Amino acid sequence: MAGMEYSDIVVRTKEDEGRYAVSDNIRRHGYEKAFLELQETLSSLGVDVSRHTFDEDTFRRLEESFAAAEKYRLLRPGGVPPWSFLGLCILHDLLAPQHYLESGYYRGSSLLAALSNSRLRKIHGFDPNPNNLALPGFPDHVSATLVEEDFSKAAPRNTHGAEALVYFDDHINTAQRILEAQKKGYRHLLFDDSCGLTGTSQRHWPSMPTLYFIVHVDDLEPGDFVEWPSPIGRARDGSGGDGQLRVTFDAELIDLCRRAKDVISGWTKLPNLADYVLWPSASGYPDVTQHLVLLKDS
User: Fold this and answer.
1) What is the Cα–Cα distance from 189 to 223, expressed in whole angstroms?
2) Which tens digit of pLDDT belongs to each residue from 117-166?
3) Residue 246 in contact with residue 225, Cβ under 8 Å?
4) C-alpha angle 259/200/183, rounded to 5°?
5) 274 CB burial (10 A radius; 0-12, 13-18, 19+)
6) What is the DSSP-derived secondary structure letter of residue 76?
7) How many CB atoms lie within 10 A of CB 208?
8) Which of 76, 111, 196, 202 has the maximal Cβ count within 10 Å?
9) If you average pLDDT over residues 1-9, what whole number do you get?
10) Average pLDDT for residues 165-192, to the nearest whole number?
11) Confidence at residue 231, expressed as pLDDT on a 0 to 100 scale
12) Which residues contact 266 (CB under 8 A, 6 or more apart)?
């Protein structure tokens, strides 16, 4: 078979079995490529990130963030996967918000990513079960307020303008969150799990209507629906689960999507950075599509 003569370049050994490793040089250049890809994505949205460059200090901060994430065992199914963690760290480096708000912080992997931003001064976190948090604390220069209340009730009004970033990883109605954030004066929003059809069908609690349906609301008609078997207990062939899940778009829900779309000034899907992180199989992770959404001034 053509190419078989090259198979001997892979040396098979049982030493350090189970370890995933890559040289510092390959890792550094992978981080740099991810940085440039995200920088280009933000620039295409009209966000000025031209003053930022990838340097040795950037590499050091990313190394420290990954080391801390491993120490506290944050990069596991149920939290953000490592390629999304890399993206979040770089995004915070590029946007450098002074105020960061997160709805659904769970074990704290995305909070840790936010701490890679040296300009960060204030964190507000919202989660119904704070007992899952695995981070031991926050730096002295960052004021952190973590509450069990919902973002809609407990989030303060934005006093930092474009220097604030809100991250929604809570599987709650994306249209509702957009309108809530816009009312409180926030313009830069980041959504996790606000997916299209495949990502939605991988969840028992999708953030419906997701951003996909909001930006394509003009294609919807009353009576349109999405239906899928619950992923909980789903058989390997994709069938089964503990029942069917269904979302039907009636006139009221379509109107909600349209009102959310009307306050959006721009949006972009963040790139998949899995090529730049050496990690075990991604099969344990569902679609973790992330989007950055910019809102019009309120």
Assistant:
1) 30
2) 999 999 999 999 999 999 999 999 999 999 999 999 999 999 999 999 99
3) yes
4) 25
5) middle
6) S
7) 21
8) 111
9) 60
10) 96
11) 78
12) 45, 46, 293, 294
* Distance in angstroms between the alpha carbons of the first and the last residue of the chain: 64
Inter-residue contact 276 to 82 (CB < 8 Å): no
As beta bridge partners, residue 248 has 225
- Which amino acid is residue 211, in one-letter code? L
Residue 201: per-residue pLDDT:
84
Q: What is the tens place of the pLDDT at every residue in 196-230?
A: 888 888 888 888 999 999 999 999 999 999 998 88
Q: Does the pLDDT at position 242 exceed 70?
A: no
Domains and CATH numbers, the chain: 21-195+264-295 (3.40.50.150)
Residue at token pair 């509450």: 147
Model confidence at 80, in pLDDT bands (50, 70, 90)? confident
Nearest to 97 by CA among 34, 56, 142: 142
Three-state secondary structure string covering 202-245: CCCCCCCCCHHHHHCHHHCCCCEEEEEECCCCECCCCCECCCEE
Contacts of residue 125, defined as CB under 8 A and 6 or more positions apart, other chains included, come to: 101, 102, 103, 105, 111, 144, 145, 146, 147
3-state secondary structure of 250: coil
Task: Report which of 205, 181, 208, 180 is spatially closest to residue 194, judged by C-alpha positions.
Answer: 208
Q: How many residues does the chain have?
A: 298
Q: How many CB atoms within 10 Å of residue 33?
A: 14
Q: Strand pairing partners for 100?
A: 123, 165
Read off the tokens for 230: 């619950």
Residue in the block written with tokens 């390997």: 236
> How many whole angstroms separate alpha carbon 234 and alpha carbon 143?
42
Across 46-55, 59-68, 96-105, 194-203, least confident range: 194-203
